[in-house]
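Usage example:
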Amino acid sequence: MNAKQKDVVATIAINVIVATVVGILFFLLAYILISGLPHVSWSFLTGTTDSFSGAGGIGVQLFNSFYLLILTMLISIPISLGAGIYLAEYAKDNWRTHLIRSAIEVLSSLPSVVVGLFGFLLFVVQFKIGFSVISGAIALTFFNLPLLTRNIEESLSAVPRNQREAGLSLGMSKWKTEIGIILPVALPGIVTGIVLSAGRVFGEAAALIYTAGQSAPVTNFADWNPMDAASPLNPLRPAETLAVHIWKVNTEGLASNAAQLSAAASAVLIIAVLLFNLGARVLGNYLYRRVTASK
Amino acid sequence: MEQTNSEFKQDGAPTSQDWARQLHHATRASREDWFGRGISYLCIGVIILVVASMLWFITSKGMATFTQNHVNLWQFLSGTNWAPDQGHIGALPMIVGSFAVTFAAALVATPFAVGTAIFMTEIAPNKGRKFLQPVIELLVGIPSVVYGFIGLAVVVPFMRHLVGGSGFGIISATFVLFVMVLPTITTMTVDSLRSVPRFYKEASLALGATRWQTVSKVILRAATPGILTAIIFGMARAFGEALAVQMVIGNAAVMPKNLISPAATLTSQLTTGIGDTIDGTLPSNALWSLALILLLMSLFFNALVRLIAKRGQLSHER
Amino acid sequence: MGIAAISMLLVGCGKATSSTSSSKSSSAALSGKVTAVGSTALQPLAAKAGSQFTSKNSKVNLTVQGGGSGTGLSQVQSGAVSIGDSDIFAEEKAGIKADTLTDHKVAVVGMGPVVNKDAGVKNLKMSQLKQIFTGKITNWKMVGGKDQKIVIINRAQGSGTRATFENAVLKGATAVKSQEQDSNGAVQKIVATTPGAVSYLAFSYFTNKLQALSVDNVTPTDNNVETNKWKIWSYEHMYTKGKPDKATAAFLNYMSSKDVQNSLVKDMGYISIHDMKVTKDAKGVVTNN
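Running the assembly step on the lines above writes:
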């Protein structure tokens, strides 16, 4: 076999592999959507859940998922941005930096159930915050941090050196260069990373069972004062998310149509993640154009 | 000096004191720099604090089995009888189970992930970016519990017809994990392939190499450390995955005899048992010891990836 | 023992009447935070009753969570939560100082063995059931079913459901190592789809996709549990540490009130504590009331 033939064979092999992967992906998506979408209705999306059987709508859970996601991102993006800048700019190539990197990677590979139990024993029990949105958001932040930090560092490091030198030679500080020049260029990469981690946060169940809790008290959606107990924005109320709801319906659900309910909720979850991905992508491109003034 | 200075003064130019002040005091730029440095140090400090407290927490809990309950470490690692309620703490079945599913899943997933990544970067970059990447990113968002139930509804019966037995076991877990780690390994491999400098590829093609020769001899070679990192990350995810594996592996704390009999992993045992144990008792401590093993394993994986990356880099530069 | 049981029942009834009046009269006054954590088997009932309770007492902030009986008992013992939900007696759990906790039995749950429909078995002797779960009988043919290998699906070690089953069926013998699942839903799905599978479930999880077994020709019904003809059942406990605060006490009263016991409890497939004609103590000794 000469080089040309090898090339043809390899290309075919790769195409077969990709076809298989695409096949699996589409089977999965189709399976979830086809088994779930027929059971999705407006009343399912906005209705409240029967706390006993798990039957009924998922309105509160859907809101909780997004609220928890936003809260998690509000906490984790600034911290990982700072940490990412540290690793990309300030960290020297020595054993201490290696240790820090290893520590971050270890954090990312911890099983989420362990993170959940840690959050439970520390925030829920020790600090007496209780099963709450904020406990859940902090637990999610724990394994969001390593993913985001790593991603931000990589996106920043991928920006060509001369951009940095240009900034510094203009007499700008390192910090200003980083924020004003490097960060905007790295933005699309960072946004992709945020999207990826958001997907993971959205689908996380094991870490939330013991922190944000498994109950979704009916909230008063007319009350937007975060201090009121019944307000959906109150960070101290327990909040069952969509993924936890799917887990619960599947494991302990007593509703006769539990299978359909979980399929429908899974379909909604997938679509929500899809919309979120698309939205973030559009936003990322828009920001990129705005900040870099490139058309 | 004074005179010249005064002359300068008359002209409205800075005095030496002005110069000194300027030179000794921080400029706006360097103040900004200190500010920025402070912020980024603070952030990394927060992360280190989180990691350290987790490490301390899991270690202290996991060590209690040996320090408080006086279980022999060797017995814990080599024993095959896991019945904490009766005081038997042998974690070997779970250790073997975890390793088996992790390596099997990585072994199956790697060719698929690397093939897909080559397709996305070298063969059809446009289709890759517009179509494959969003779909793969979407897969990351499917909750593991959904993977678990699809595994239970589709993979387990399929394996039962294909290879016999009850369908629960390492082979089903491998299949579910393969799909779960595929996005992780693929996206990271794509990143590392994209970061190979363009001129490598151009030089190779200019020398008359075919696309496959360029990909296999130049691009994959240059991206090897990145790909290995991707695989290790995939393995770390497989190692730590709990809910999905738990549904399809069968959770039997016995030594896996073959790929199709029920087995257990560290995470599946941890998830199954933790709600039913009492804080501070042997069954609870024993489960935390399993968590400690998980932690040590991921430390080990990390050390491995550093070693490989370092070697790859060296020979690559040579 | 019988007297104690009766007096407990009477106290329960007395509380029931007082709670209905108190929840009406003191709806403005009663306030506080009540957190009930633990047993996933009790969680649905507690959650539903809880939402009814808070609709009458809007000032009370009541949260019901699962997490497992072990979690419930440890957390109530450490004082982190006001109520620990459990499927088993605190005395049965090593590491729990049962004498520091107060038991409030709020319902009874009957459990029974279930098999995959293909197994061809509808009734087993108690001794056969024991031999299956200890690994002595490995094929359905040996107990009059099809020639099919028995696949045992057990519950997680230390879980309340497993403890109840093993107390009633194995009586001290050790179960053979097998698959373990930690939830009713998972067991339900696995037994329905796996040929030759056998496990056990709470009555409320029986479906027409499974074959629920009779044991010694006794059918698994609520009536048989009430008279202890059906042996595999347990209480659902709500444990408090010491004297509960006002809001917690009111909620516990509400749980044992007729409102809950006669409607909610039955609607949800539990058995009312008031209907029991026998009492079981922590050692498993059953006495007639």
